[in-house]
Target: ATP-dependent Clp protease proteolytic subunit
Amino acid sequence: MSNKPLPKPVKPAAVQLAASSIRKPPRGALIKPQAKTRPGALPLPANRDVAAFTKPSVFDRWSADAAGVRALEPGDNVITMFDVVGEDYWSGGGITAKRVASQLRAIGPKPVEVQINSPGGDMFEGIAVYNVLREHPQPITVKVMGMAASAASIIAMAGDQIQVGAASFLMIHNCWVMAMGNRHDMKETAEWLEPFDQAMVEVYAARSGQDPKQIAKWMDAETFMSGSIAVDRGFADALLPADTMTVDENAKAQDLDLNEIRAMELSLVSAGMTRNDARARLNKIKGTPGAAFEATPGAGADWSGLSGLLSTLRS
Model:
């Protein structure tokens, strides 16, 4: 019998990455599953002061290709996600882990269908929603009706069965945030984000069976995959029949108007404003004749003056 000491156990790579987060290590660790099984929990930042966004260009793509797309038959065990990910200041809605958990409790311990048409939003909230869904004890079928971009594509990966419309899209990219500071601050932010991008690579790779290095390249390139490409690459299991979807023209008009407001807000934030200051600036315009618009976080919005607000902002 050999007297050599046993080698020390090696932590999985994703655990090491999660533990290496700068200043604010994320909670939990990714347990790498076998391909085609529902993956383990994704790490979340211990401190959510840093917000992750969807790029304005993605909102533009969603407006052009997917706004207003809805399912013909919702069903009583269906969770619809036809909104941005995270609390939405402008509509009082948004896809959040708290709301999804409440919907799952109402549905109870039975199979669930999740219908998605979302440009994404807060990546960290998307990870939280993903974690909530993966804890459900019964099978989850995800149906991508128009688009599952950015954080919404992470949510889609919680499905045991994923179906994508032939004219729908999955989009994957690296976590996108807005940061300000000197080169040391930028380096620190990049290092802080790295474990979250790596954890997403692990989930996409586990679901698709693709090489993680190839997944990382697709994320770097901000890749849109049509339904057939998503199926071919293993990100989805089947195409969703076109006759299960429709375009709600009222919802489409509302989606487009909201996206313009969100894009304007992000433009102001990109110019150096805080989100609170950007929202205050936009809300001041509601006092302009013909531009009245009220939006209270979590309380919904009065849509009657949104067209006037947009007309004023465009002029």
Remarks:
- The radius of gyration is 20 Å.
- Confidence is low (pLDDT under 50) at residues 6-35, 288-305.
- DSSP finds eleven helices and eleven strands in the chain.
- The chain has two domains: 27-246, 250-314.
